[in-house]
Amino acid sequence: MTDQAIMPVPTEALDTQGAIDWLKDKYPEAVQDDTRQGYGGVVVDRSQLTKIAHAIRDDLGYDYLSSATAVDYLGISDHIEMVYHAYRTAGGPPLVFKAQTPRENAEIPSVVSVWPGADFQEREAYDLFGIQFSGHPNLKRILLWEGFDGHPMRKDWQEAYYEEEHKPFESRWPKGWVRRAEELNVFGKNVRYPADLDLSRLTDVSEDSLYKGMGLGVDVQEIVQEGEHIKTDRLIVNMGPHHPSTHGVFRMIAELDGETIEALEPVMGYLHRNHEKIGERNAWLMNIPFTDRLDYISSMGNNMGYVQAVEKLLAQGARYTPPTYRAEVIRVLMVELTRIVNHLWAIGFLLNDLGAFFTPALYAIAEREKVLDFFEATAGSRMMCNYMRFQGVAKDLPERIHSTAVTVNDKVRDYNTMEFLTELINERLPRSIDELDHFLTESEIIKTRAMGVGILPPEMAIAYSAAGPLLRASNVPYDVRRAEPYSIYPELDFDVCVRPNGDVYDRYLIRLDEMRESVRILKQVLQRLEATHGEDIFSGNKAIYMPRVPVGESYGRVENPKGELGFYCVSEGDPKGPQNPWRYHVRAPSFINLTPLGVMCKGHKVADVVVILGSIDIVLGETDR
Amino acid sequence: MSTLDLRELHDTEFPVPADMQNNVAITSLSKIYNWSRRSSLWPMLFGLACCAIEMIATAASRYDFSRFGMEVMRGSPRQSDLMIVSGTVTKKMVVPIVRLYNQMPEPKYVMAMGACASGGGPFKEGYNVVSGIDQYVPVDVYVPGCPPTPQALMYGLISLQKKFDGESLANLDDVPWYGVGPSDAVPIPVLGPDIIDPRQAELIRQQAMLAAQGLPFGRRELPAVAVPQPAVAPVEEKPAIAAASTETAEEIDPEKAARLAKREAALARKRAAKAAAEGNEG
Ligand code: SF4
């Protein structure tokens, strides 16, 4: 870097605007401000993307690529755009940069060489938008199967049950009648074939492509010659999608040398339920219940991420009022309870993967029922809470909690809400955490199986965009609640947990730590709940839950139990017209945390794979979306 | 271990002396056969999506479906009697599901747990979502909900047990697995440009031929439906309600007519409020 000598301030210390100016100064022909209304960041000439990405990482210090996603601006400016959000692990706001490509023969250089964490995200953009990433080491479909017709997230791609661009559809109730989608399809199924379907070649090629490059078809003889005296063949082992330890419908293909993993590749998409495509048809408000179904163990956290992203957009409009204080307090209460539930669940099922089949899990999830009772009493549903709203929450806490379960022979289950919460937070949850700690932490078996297994060094964790407990167990004290604070977290007293070793055991320990921190937060929240009793939980006019969303983009992220959950939303078009997101992207921690799985497993035994996977704590609803 | 109440098994007129009823039961073969099956139903350990979490909660200590003899969840289809399809079935996943189903030994049962498995649920319109597992494998019990509460799932399982109770060994339709030869496997779908159900190969071929002539591939244009036009203003609405209630009053019993009228009135109020709100906004 020749002109570094002229720079007065060290470049790693520049603020966002300074960084943008520095970039424009350095690459005047390749970097432009994004001047569209409601947008921010810079647009980078795609031919120089890799070079500039290097500069952003190395010179400006944005070492953590949070999200990389595509947007199809068909009919607006007729190009496809990749949007990158890069952060500094020291904290602070993002540097947003974009690269544009024409829709025909869309091609953008890959940034995997700069941030390996972009690997799966670029594959997803290739799969769903058809962007070729030159220089990507392993560019193939990730959520759909090889051979699928088209790239479904493009705006001109219509699914089999396509009705209209916007919801609510004309055929739905208020206008009078409902027509079932399958009636329009001759096959009576959700299928759609290309017009030039070649019936003579209807073979399933999706499997072959998965094993490509995994050494299948290697001549066994050759290997025997190569190896000196031990005759070992390489073996390809497929795990999943139906496997008790893959936490759902996840699949891995491993290449083994004896019992040792040589290479491992995750295969996903078995629960790809088109969240984003459906989300772009939905009105903004309709997406809240859908976010529940992302990470279905911590639905409240997902709600929070989405409403915050949309509130950022709304804040650019005139009629927006931020959520009331009590609403924020209730949100944090819900989110932290969710975090505890999630970590209890994660530890229980990690133990499952370690071979302690279900008994620890039973203990771990016992308290979960208590929390779910509270959710049910408040939001109306145990798991799919659909509770938060833009500018507030849907309902205030109830005065009393009735559990619907076991009412016949257990008449005692009727509590005052505050008493219930006080007992839960001050006694039950800490007791349950201590209990797990007491039985598990010092267990010889757990230590032997977990210590030194699946190590992820800090530099690698950052490079691979790992998030949440996975990142913090690798000695990187990065927590969105502190790095880019939101809601009432700035006034709460808690520590960012961090563990030094980055192995499975530390990932187990950090979950215990985080639960304890959550309890600490919850105790402070309790006081605030009492102090704000009776105050408003919704700012603005309740009759209009859905205000007009101004044009622009926003990226909202929260520290979800599984890691950093981000929502990238774009609002476009007629402010008086239909109100649905133009782009609605979920930066799913479970998905991106899987990027380093192959690296972490390499060199370990097959039995360790399930443990490493369990320690990442994925949930398939979010991985595949 | 729960104690077995032998009286549950009695299925005959033949009297058993009262003091022996705890030790002796006289029953029919069908009865004891069904009783054994219903009390040791082994579900497959198989979770697809969010509903699976509630399934696990049902298996856990608070709800505990081992009370009904179902706690042995098997990882292998070859050891299980019941497949609980607990979650969204995607096109990519339906291939392994059909395979798993074919591997289960008979008698085998399928439960569609939740809105997704029953009919596509909230994600029905998605391009990778199958509108219900019953498009590929036969389903015995549907449990509605999103997700069904553990209570609902349990009710579904009990319903399945009731289904067993009604079956008779004497009737080959009830126990087809004792018929001649193995029963047919469900053809495994193929992942082509979209998912292809081999049972529809002929239909697809026909459609492809039509498509070659320039007709739309697989889309059917429905005859226009007579759309009931919602009235715009509440003023026009009132006579309509009156007419509806007088018309129906003759044929239907008055109670139902009153209910109908009430509903119509509520709808009209709603529309009026909406029209008013829109007027204000605009
Ligand atoms: S029915 Fe609802 S809870 Fe069940 S899998 Fe579908 S979306 Fe999830």
Tell me what the structure shows.
The complex is a heterodimer of chains A (625) and B (282). With 625 residues, chain A is an alpha+beta fold. Chain A has 2 domains: 14-134, NADH:ubiquinone oxidoreductase Nqo5 subunit (Beta Polymerase, domain 2, 2-Layer Sandwich), CATH 3.30.460.80; 275-624, Orthogonal Bundle (Cytochrome-c3 Hydrogenase, chain B), CATH 1.10.645. Chain A is 36% helix and 15% strand. Chain A has helices spanning 16-26, 49-58, 119-129, 206-211, 220-226, 275-281, 287-292, 299-314, 325-353, 359-364, 366-379, 417-441, 444-450, 458-463, 469-472, 480-483, 504-531, 589-592, 597-601, 606-616, 620-624, and strands at residues 31-33, 42-44, 64-72, 79-87, 95-102, 107-109, 132-134, 234-239, 251-257, 260-267, 388-389, 392-393, 400-402, 414-416, 552-560, 563-571, 583-587. In chain A, strands 1-2-5-4-3 form a 5-stranded mixed beta sheet, covered by helices on one side. The radius of gyration of chain A is 25 Å and the shape is globular. With 282 residues, chain B is mainly α. Among the domains of chain B are: 42-163, Rossmann fold, CATH 3.40.50.12280; 250-281. In chain B, 40% of the residues lie in helices and 6% in strands. Chain B is built from 8 helices and 5 strands. Chain B has a 3-stranded parallel beta sheet with strand order 1-2-3. A two-stranded antiparallel ribbon of chain B has the order 4-5. In chain B, α1 runs antiparallel to α5 and α2 (50-59) crosses α5 (150-165). The chains are: A alpha+beta (625), B mainly alpha (282). Iron/sulfur cluster binds next to α2 and α4 of chain B.
